[in-house]
Structure formats: C-alpha cells, structure tokens
Specification:
heterodimer; A: 346 residues; alpha+beta; OB fold (Dihydrolipoamide Acetyltransferase, E2P); 2 domains; 6-stranded mixed beta sheet; B: 301 residues; mainly alpha; MetI-like fold; 73% helix
C-alpha cells in the first residue's frame, strides 16, 4: 500500500518564484524516503506542503488514500520534527508531548499511556518533568521526536532534524532515528542536505535540484548509477570524478590519453568514475601524475592528474604511498558516461 | 522612580568591577555609587524625616533632619482622617483609588497592546503594516493634546466619576503595541508551525504559547505602566469631581490647598502622603524586577 502520493505538485510563490516544478513521489508503507539536495532545491518546501504549512499551487497530495490539499496540518495525520526542535520552552517535556493530544481532546488516561510509551522508547522518562532549556541538544531532539511519536501519525516528516547537533551526536541520532522508524514501521520523509545522512537512512533517496527530481532510487542505485552529473557529484564523499572526454571509434580520449572503452555513443561526453573504483598501478594503465595525498586513517585520498584533468583515487591506507608517475586502472563497467551538455546519463 | 535609577546603575558598576579588579577602580566606583544614592535618596529621606515633625515646627524652622515624635499620629491622620471639601475621602480610600487606576491602567494597556500586536504580526490582513504605523503615530497625540475631545466622549458616555472613565481612555498604547510587536517577531516561526500541527488554533496559540512566552515582557511593561498610571495627574483631575474617586497624587495637592488660608498648612501630612504615594510604585518595581531577571535567566538557551 502507498501511504503518501505526491502527484505533479508545483509551488509558485506570490512573487513568481517557482520553488517546486512538478514533482511526483510515492512513499510506500513503512518506507523511509529521504529528500536530498542543495539548499534552495525545494526539498523543504515540498515537505512543508505535505505538512500543510505551505499551500499547494498545483497537483495533489494524497495521504492514506484521500487528498489532503486543503486540510489543516492538524487534520492531516502527520507529525513533523523541526530543525531547531521547536519545543515549547515554557512547558515541561511531558506537557510538550501531551499538547497535541490535549488539543485533540484525547482522554487523559490515553495521553498518559502514550506519553509514557514514547518516553520509554526514547529513554527520556527521567526528563519528563524538566523544561527544554534544561536539556542538551540530543535530549531536545529526542523530545521533538517524542512529540511526533505520541500522535501515532500516518507519516513522520523530518526537516533536517540533526543539523543543529555536533558531528558525533549526529551519527548517533541518525542511527537511532533509523532504528526507531524500523521499529514503529511508520512511513517517513526525511529532508536533508547531507548526502551521508541520505545514504545511511534512506530506503529510497529522492535527489532534488532546482525544484525538480534528478533521480529516485535506493542508496545503492543512486550511488552506482547516477542519472546525471548532478547526482554523481552530489552523492558520495569524495564525489565521483567527472572528466570531459571524447568517445571516438578507437576508444575514449581523456585529457590526451586514449582509453579502451566500448560505447555506442560518439562525440563529447563527461566521463565519470567513483574514486574507489580506480586503482593506481606501478606499470601500465593510463599515465597519471600523483599530486597531494590526504590520509584519512583507514583510507587515503590520492589527488592525481590525468592529462589536464584532476582525479581523486581512494586507496586503502595499508597500500604503499604513491608518488611520481603511475598508472590508473579501472574496469570499463565502472565507468559511467554523461551527455556533455545536458549532464544526463547516456 | 528613584529606586530604578539606583538599581540600574548597580549591575553596570558590578560588571565594571568584574572586568577590572584593581583596588583603585573599586573605590572610585563605590564613590560614584554612593554619590548617586546620596543625591537620589537624600531628598526622600529628608522628606520622610520632616514628615515626622509637627507642622507648626516645620513652618517655623523648615525641613528637618532627624526624627520627630509625630510619626504614628501623622501617618494615621493621613490614612484615616476624613479630608477634602466634603470630608468623604480618606488617605486610605485615595490609596485604593490609586491602586485601581495603576493596576487597571497597566493591565488594560497590556491586554489591548498584546491583542493589537498579535493581530499585526500573525494575521496576514491587508495594510497590517499601515495599521501598525497608524497606531504608532498616536504617540504624537498624547492625552494632553486631545484632552477636550476625550473629555467630551467620556462625558457623553456618562463615564465621568467612574473607574471605567478613569481608566478606559488611557489604555490604548502605541508603545506597548510596539514592544509586543518586536517581541512576537522574535518568536521562532517554527513554534507557530509546531502548534498548528499540534492542533492549536489562533486562540489556543495565543493563550497557550504566546502569553506564557511573553511573561518577561508583560512584567516589564507592567512595571512601567503601573508607575505611569499611578502618577497620572491631569486626567484624574479633570475627570473626577466626586472626591471618593480622588487618587493619592491628587490628594497631596488637595491637602496643601485646603489648609492654606486661615491655618498653617499641614506640611507634615502633605509630605507623609507624598511618601505613601511613592511606596507602592517602588514596591512594584522591586518585586517585578526580581521576576523580570528570573524570566530572563530561565529562557536563556
């Protein structure tokens, strides 16, 4: 079953700016879909339209089989977790959790049961009578999630919930969100500009750029088979190497070097290769000049020059440190080609 | 008002102390503070001391330093003696009237200006900004400028010699609206969105979220407005001909005026009343300033 259907949704602001240019996404039951993209790509606007905080210019949003375009946020059966938590500062944690239920005239016994259930789940039971200002960032984030959980919504909406936390806590909370979502089996949309969060959390990733969908797919698909140079450079750290190349009958010319490559396409292309799919060898391969080497502990990033293009190669740290002139090898299956002008996958 | 001034200088001086802890600077700071206290409090202390003397003695020898023996009798007279032209008003009643005016004035201003600011900030109606500036422009028309039309309106409404008439024409407040508007604009928009998702309508949001968040602001404005209301002179003088509606601030003048002529003016009673009239605003400032600071500290993130 499909929990949420976004059908050809557009958003045009009164000043004429088009933030979302016709987007269609389905979120299946229990699925965690991540909207990822640079700032201004329309991902938050789209989420806010699902939440009912922004009006919908065109298209339909269907939640559990009914169109919710004109419903108030409170009537949509959604729950949202905000970037800056948006906890009510003057209320205790317990009241923060209970506020939405109280407004819905839920019986007090039911409110208590749900609040305690959520508090146990998130391990915030001991903070229930504290004010948000007495909690740390991570604890506040848990409370914000608790406020979403007690509603038993059809779908969770996360709006960059971890960007206010420090890096270590972010990794920890990321894992917890994933576990929690698995346990509750509730569908969720998670908006982020951080591709690592997108890769680790998502069942499916929706990559947005300039108000349009660049690609929808599982993290593995999006990583291995990017649909455009935008996706290729946005997903993965370090990003995919993108080098201008020219495919001729004899092979592919990259920076003055001709590599073997079988492709039906002829003419100028952008050649893409993931850094960890390339290998440096002492003899043979395409000749490269080794530049700066960055040690990351387990792996190292080797920046090198192929003809007049820069490439990054990832290598295990236990391999010898490369220097001088070496050869670059890769499997032809790992190379992806994009149209030079449109940037779309060939 | 004197109390506020001295109490405001104190934290600044302390901040200066923590910055430079040289002995010389500390002494210098304290000298300034003591001078401030002396100049601010000196006249009050002398007024209080003088009020404990017999009025004949004051008439002969002027202001006094030291304690006379008339403290209890003077203050008792001021509070309980039937005074005024009709003899229907006591100091105690005037104190009550002053409280009604001060509290009514402050609460009225807070309620009206909060509601106005709420409408201006949170409701997208046409010309909201224009409305705000029109409200703000009324600062150019204080009561003194529009006192005759105001009087006429109140008179036609039949509100002369009533508490309503005393308070109502004064409670529209551009400054209050301005302060609350600025404050509401600083409240994160996500709180509004979170409460919308939590099913709070405009009324619930105001009562459950905005008002509790504004307690600090409300306390601050209450302090200022209570003192302003308490010190109102012109409007109550014009509005109330029935002496049972007289306020303390008016009463001080009344005492001097009535006595002049055949008798020696009762300086001691007038001074005692001035001291009494000063106490409640000072108390309000001291009490609410605690709350004010507490509110600030607790909302710190």
């Amino acid at each position: 079953m499909t929990t949420l259907r976004i059908k050809n949704v557009r958003k045009v602001y009164p000043n004429g700016a088009e933030a979302v240019k016709g987007v269609s996404v389905d979120v299946e039951d229990g699925e965690l879909v991540v909207f990822v993209g640079p700032s201004g790509c329309g991902k938050s606007t789209l989420l806010r339209m699902v939440a009912g905080l922004e009006s919908i210019t065109e298209g339909d949003i269907e939640l559990a089989g009914r169109v919710v375009n004109d419903l108030e946020p409170a009537d949509r059966n959604i729950a949202m977790v905000f970037q800056n938590y948006a906890l009510y500062p003057h209320m205790t944690v317990r009241k923060n959790l209970a506020y939405g239920l109280k407004n819905r005239k839920t019986p007090q016994s039911e409110i208590d049961a749900r609040v305690n259930e959520a508090a146990d789940l998130l391990q915030i039971a001991e903070f229930l009578d504290r004010k948000p200002s007495q909690l740390s960032g991570g604890q506040r984030q848990r409370v914000a999630m608790g406020r979403a959980i007690v509603r038993h919504p059809a779908i969770f909406l996360f709006d960059e919930p971890l960007s206010n936390l420090d890096a270590k806590l972010r990794n920890q909370m990321r894992l917890e969100i994933k576990k929690l979502q698995r346990r509750l089996k509730t569908a969720a949309i998670y908006v982020t500009h951080d591709q690592v969060e997108a890769m680790t959390l998502a069942d499916r990733i929706v990559v947005l750029n300039g108000g349009q969908i660049e690609q929808i797919g599982t993290p593995a698909e999006v990583y291995a088979n990017p649909a455009s140079t935008f996706v290729a450079s946005f997903i993965g750290a370090p990003p995919m190497n993108l080098v201008p190349a020219n495919v001729t009958d004899t092979g592919m010319e990259v920076g003055g070097v001709t590599l073997d490559h079988a492709s039906s396409h002829r003419g100028p292309v952008t050649f893409g290769l993931r850094p960890e799919r390339a290998h440096l060898v002492a003899n043979g391969g395409a000749p490269v000049e080794i530049g700066v080497v960055e040690e990351l502990g387990a792996v190292r990033l080797v920046h090198c020059r192929l003809g007049d293009s820069d490439l990054t190669v990832t290598q295990n740290a236990d391999e010898p440190v490369p220097t001088g002139s070496m050869g670059l090898e890769f499997s032809a299956a790992d190379a992806v080609l994009f149209h030079r002008d449109s940037g779309r996958r060939l | 008002m004197t109390t506020t001034d001295t109490e405001q200088t104190a934290p600044k001086a302390q901040a200066a102390l923590s910055r430079k802890s040289f002995g010389g600077v500390r002494v210098y700071d304290h000298v300034i503070l003591w001078l401030g206290v002396f100049f601010m409090m000196g006249p009050l202390v002398v007024a209080f001391m003088t009020s404990t003397f017999d009025h004949v003695l004051i008439h002969k020898q002027g202001m006094q330093v030291g304690f006379g023996g008339e403290f209890l009798s003077t203050y008792e007279t001021v509070l309980t003696q039937q005074g005024g032209f009709t003899g229907a008003v006591t100091g105690w009643l005037m104190t009550q009237n002053s409280f009604i005016l001060g509290i009514g004035f402050a609460l009225g201003k807070i309620v009206v200006s909060m509601l106005a600011a709420y409408a201006i900030v949170y409701f997208r109606f046409r010309a909201a900004t224009l409305c705000f500036w029109v409200i703000f422009l009324t600062l150019l028309l204080p009561l003194e400028v529009r006192i005759l039309p105001s009087y006429e309106v109140v008179q036609q409404l039949g509100l002369l010699n009533s508490y309503t008439g005393l308070i109502l024409p004064l409670i529209a407040s551009a400054t209050g609206t301005f302060f609350f508007r600025q404050f509401f604009k600083s409240v994160p928009n996500e709180l509004l969105e979170a409460s919308r998702i939590d099913g709070a309508g405009p009324f619930r949001f105001f009562v459950d979220i905005l008002v509790p968040l504004s307690t600090t602001m409300i306390a601050a404005i209450f302090i200022i407005m209570f003192v302003v209301g308490w010190n109102q002179y012109l409007w109550p003088t014009l509005m109330t001909t029935d002496e049972t509606y007289f306020t303390l601030v008016r009463g001080i003048k009344q005492i001097m005026q009535i006595m002049i002529g055949a008798d020696i003016p009762k300086y001691n009673e007038a001074l005692a009343m001035a001291i009494l009239a000063m106490l409640p605003p000072a108390a309000v400032i001291i009490i609410f300033q605690r709350m004010f600071i507490k509110g600030l500290v607790e909302q710190e993130k």
